[in-house]
Amino acid sequence: MLNLQLDDKVALVTGAGQGVGRRIAIELAAQGCKVGVNDLFPDRAEAVATEIRAAGHLAIPLTADICEPQSVGDMFHRLLDGFGPCDILVNNAGVPPTLREPGAKRPNFAETTVHEQHAQIALNVNGTMYCCREALRQMDGRRGRIVSIVSEAGRRGEARLAAYSGAKAAIVGFTMALAREYSPLGITANCIALGAVVHEGIRSGPLSSNSGPELAETRARIFRTYPAAPGLGRLGTPEDVSAAVLFLSSPLAAFITGQTLGVSGGYHMQ
């Protein structure tokens, strides 16, 4: 196994209660990190932390609403008390719970509400900034890694996801600015852009595990938009994402900063 030199690093993963975030937390712990498992829902955070501990690794649940700066501050204090200062921050939370609900609609932008727009900005832009501010304070004088999970929607735009696309694009710009400010201090900042990733957190639609034959053509159409999908016989998985996070979090990626790595099967190329 390749030694990623992550033993005893302290990592915090937001939105780690299911799906991509869960897998990132599990893999960081398996590499020797002490992992703070954040989620908005206490039962999810506790379940993943328990799963990690059962495998013989170190983790603590950190329930917090990253849209609230006080909640974020408290979360980082709990991480500090439990494991020490943050070495690795993975900003993974980015889809409001309402978009995960079965039957959630995606109207044109003009038909969305201001509340929906604000929710996207609060979670993606503000939440990422709140977490980065606290992490950077703990990384002061020490080498650190910030990895933000974004979407290819933020690089190419997606119809009926205008606010989401804009919020993800903002994270990319913010990350490049952080890289310019903090890389001279040994702290790198990068993004990973995702396309379709199949995981248990998707409860409805063509990518859910319980989708029926009526969505077969939709699934096939999605499949054809990913150049790597036919060769692999699948779409993206949480493991694809966690592998990229591990690399960018490690000393092996010390000279990589301000970049956005597409882990999307060629959906967007540049």
From TrEMBL:
Belongs to the short-chain dehydrogenases/reductases (SDR) family. InterPro entries: NAD(P)-bd_dom_sf, Sc_DH/Rdtase_CS, SDR, SDR_fam. GO terms for biological process: monocarboxylic acid metabolic process. It holds the Pfam family adh_short. Signal peptide: none annotated. This is NAD(P)-dependent dehydrogenase (Short-subunit alcohol dehydrogenase family). It comes from the Bacteria.
